[in-house]
């Protein structure tokens, strides 16, 4: 297969990137009164403005040519049609089947996946209603008031991010808590105020082997049994979401209470499955379905919209342009809606675990920068923390600004203050302020020449810093479903553009294996000879301090 760098579109983009380095977005805006119309897309509930990127018609044309050159649409169809595009694990990639609201059948290995999904959704719905309506009783006959989700990575971040984002829509039939960290501090804090008679644990683990999750699940069991004193209580207080029915059953969970997962759902794309149970328990099943419907709408858009009007495709192309061609190696996720305070943590896993790789799907070392590191924080808090870096550092960090027209919790005057900052920041990052303007401004403020000369260089903002704006009508199950699905498909497209296997995560295995061995050493008198001297001495030091304590 032709290497990406040999494609004519890739070569053209390399040349264009060199040319664009001397161009300021201010000039691009001045030269084209239609720039916003040209480089923005209005979907139901979401406006995507990408005009504040260092792009012009020629760049977009070549990026779209690249999509053709890499056969993007064909790959997309393969994903939706259950082909095994997870090449290293020989699996289909079907998180879209989980929200296939058209209910059209999808065949995989002679089975209709849609039927399996509908069956799993019915199982979820029955359980959710039982718990929320108080029919599901704990060992002492009391109704469940608190749900504790035990899981990590994709079995935590997606559901927790959504629970936080949609808090406003919860009727508080139950309280939902999350435990992900194996640091005992978290589970201790979560369990302290809870009554074991009224708590239901969801052990959420696709593999049911993840050490952190199993350790927390065992601690939760001990906590329950201390009060219940009878192992049969486990069946009433623990359910599992897992593809590993054997391990979940051995743990003591009744087979009826094991919710299905499949190998064709990646952990970081799994919130639409029973991994989303805490969401459904918190909001009610109807609202969980609305979340799926929002994602389904974007699945349809992704499959049907022409590439040049296709939001996830454009998001991926812009990321590629910024990182691979312009060399901006990190990207900030900057939500201005308090409800989205976990979005950047969620997207860190989604994007970096998917595409943080340096070998192509053909096994060749990739020579060009692939995806940026993802980081971020609520934008308004970031303004008073790290935005200095965004505005004036010599590392350029493109940002995704995400905000809502309507607040879900309006308080007089607050939303306009918030959103004025939202609009001002992308403007400032783009336009900047040059030395001439700075000097004129200082002069107008009555500063003398000496002060002007001293301060001017520090007050210059070069601008020309790329941002995307995603403006939602309001955070709701539907719009959140849309937003998440946009990013999911962006990640898929990035993988195809870069020839990366987006659906495996071999890079997390090495550390896991080493940790298992080191844990044995921490619990024994031995320290392996095979460690490097730093690691060996760190372990020895830890053990010696511990012995003295
Ligand atoms: O659901 P599981 O199998 O416990 O895995 C949790 C997380 O661990 C990882 O496998 C990384 O180790 C993630 O991909 C996954 O989301």
What labels would you give this structure?
single chain; 549 residues; alpha/beta; Rossmann fold; Phosphoglucose isomerase, C-terminal domain; 23 helices; globular; binds 6-O-phosphono-beta-D-fructofuranose; Glucose-6-phosphate isomerase; cytoplasm; acyltransferase activity; acyltransferase
Give the integer mean of the pLDDT values.
97
Structural class: alpha/beta
Determine the number of helices (DSSP H or I, runs of at least 4 residues): 23
CATH superfamily of the largest domain, please?
Answer: Glucose-6-phosphate isomerase like protein, domain 1
Oligomer: single chain
Bound molecules: 6-O-phosphono-beta-D-fructofuranose
Q: In percent terms, what proportion of residues is strand?
A: 5-15%
Please count the beta strands (DSSP E, at least 2 residues each).
Answer: 13
The separation of the N and C termini measures 60 Å
Low-confidence stretches: none
The helical percent reads 40-55%
Number of domains: 3
Q: What general outline do the C-alpha atoms trace?
A: globular
Biggest sheet, open or closed, and with what strands and sense? 6 strands, mixed
Specify Rg, calculated over alpha carbons: 26 Å
Plain-language structure description:
Its EC number is 5.3.1.9. The active site is at residues 353, 384, 512. One of its GO terms (molecular function) is acyltransferase activity. Catalyzes the reversible isomerization of glucose-6-phosphate to fructose-6-phosphate. Helix content is 49%, strand content 11%. The protein has 23 helices and 13 strands. The protein has helices at 8-20, 25-31, 35-38, 57-69, 72-80, 113-132, 157-165, 184-191, 211-228, 233-237, 245-251, 277-283, 285-304, 311-325, 343-355, 379-383, 387-392, 414-431, 435-444, 449-459, 477-498, 509-522, 533-548, and strands at residues 40-43, 46-49, 107-108, 111-112, 146-150, 175-179, 199-204, 238-242, 258-260, 330-335, 373-376, 399-406, 467-474. Helix 7 (157-165) links the parallel strand 5 and strand 6 (175-179). It is globular, with a radius of gyration of 26 Å. The termini are far apart. The chain binds 6-O-phosphono-beta-D-fructofuranose. Residues 152-155, 205-207, 210, 213, 267-268, 353, 505, 508 line the site of 6-O-phosphono-beta-D-fructofuranose.
């Amino acid at each position: 297969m032709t290497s990406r760098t040999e494609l004519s579109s890739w070569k053209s983009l390399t040349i264009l990137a060199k040319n664009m380095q001397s161009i300021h977005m201010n000039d691009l805006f001045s030269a084209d009164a239609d720039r916003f119309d040209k480089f923005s897309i209005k979907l139901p509930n979401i406006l995507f403005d990408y005009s504040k990127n260092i792009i012009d018609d020629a760049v977009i044309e070549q990026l779209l040519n690249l999509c053709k050159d890499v056969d993007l649409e064909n790959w997309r169809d393969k994903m939706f049609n259950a082909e095994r595009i997870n090449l290293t694990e020989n699996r289909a990639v079907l998180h879209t089947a989980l929200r296939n609201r058209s209910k059209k059948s999808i065949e995989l290995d002679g089975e209709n996946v849609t039927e399996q999904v509908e069956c799993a959704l019915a199982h979820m719905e029955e359980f959710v209603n039982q718990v929320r309506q108080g029919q599901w009783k704990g060992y002492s006959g009391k109704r469940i008031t608190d749900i504790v989700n035990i899981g990590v990575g994709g079995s935590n971040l997606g559901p927790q991010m959504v629970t936080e984002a949609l808090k406003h829509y919860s009727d508080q039939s139950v309280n939902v808590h999350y435990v992900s960290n194996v640091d005992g501090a978290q589970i201790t804090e979560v369990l302290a105020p809870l009554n074991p008679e009224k708590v239901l644990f969801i052990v959420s683990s696709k593999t049911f082997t993840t050490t952190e999750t199993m350790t927390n699940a065992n601690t939760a069991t001990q906590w329950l049994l201390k009060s219940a004193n009878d192992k049969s209580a486990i069946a009433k207080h623990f359910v599992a979401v897992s593809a590993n029915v054997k391990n979940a059953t051995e743990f003591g969970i009744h087979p009826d209470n094991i919710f299905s997962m499949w190998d064709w759902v990646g952990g970081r794309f799994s919130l639409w499955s029973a991994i989303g149970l805490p969401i459904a328990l918190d909001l009610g099943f109807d609202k969980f379905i609305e979340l799926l419907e929002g994602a389904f709408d974007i699945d349809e858009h992704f499959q049907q919209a022409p590439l040049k009007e296709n939001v996830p495709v454009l998001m991926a192309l812009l990321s590629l342009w910024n990182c691979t061609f312009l060399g901006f190696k990190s990207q900030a996720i900057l939500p201005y809606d308090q409800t989205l305070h976990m979005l950047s943590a969620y997207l860190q896993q989604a994007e970096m675990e998917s595409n943080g790789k340096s070998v192509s799907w053909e096994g060749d070392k990739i020579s060009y920068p692939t995806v940026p590191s993802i980081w971020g924080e609520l934008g308004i808090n970031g303004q008073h923390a790290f935005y200095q870096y965004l505005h004036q550092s010599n590392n350029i960090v493109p940002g995704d600004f995400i905000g809502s027209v309507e607040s879900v919790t309006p308080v007089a005057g607050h939303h306009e203050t918030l959103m004025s900052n939202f609009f001002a920041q992308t403007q400032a990052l783009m336009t900047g302020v040059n030395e001439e303007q700075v000097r004129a401004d200082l002069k107008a403020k009555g500063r003398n020449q000496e002060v002007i000369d001293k301060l001017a260089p520090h007050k210059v903002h070069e601008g020309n810093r790329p941002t995307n704006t995603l403006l939602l009508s309001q955070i709701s199950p539907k719009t959140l479903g849309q937003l998440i699905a946009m990013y999911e498909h962006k990640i898929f497209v990035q993988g195809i553009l870069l020839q990366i296997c987006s659906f495996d995560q071999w890079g997390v295995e090495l550390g896991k294996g080493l940790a298992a061995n080191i844990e044995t050493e921490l619990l024994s008198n031995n320290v392996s000879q095979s460690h490097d001297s730093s690691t060996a001495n760190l372990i020895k030091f830890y053990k010696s301090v511990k012995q003295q304590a």
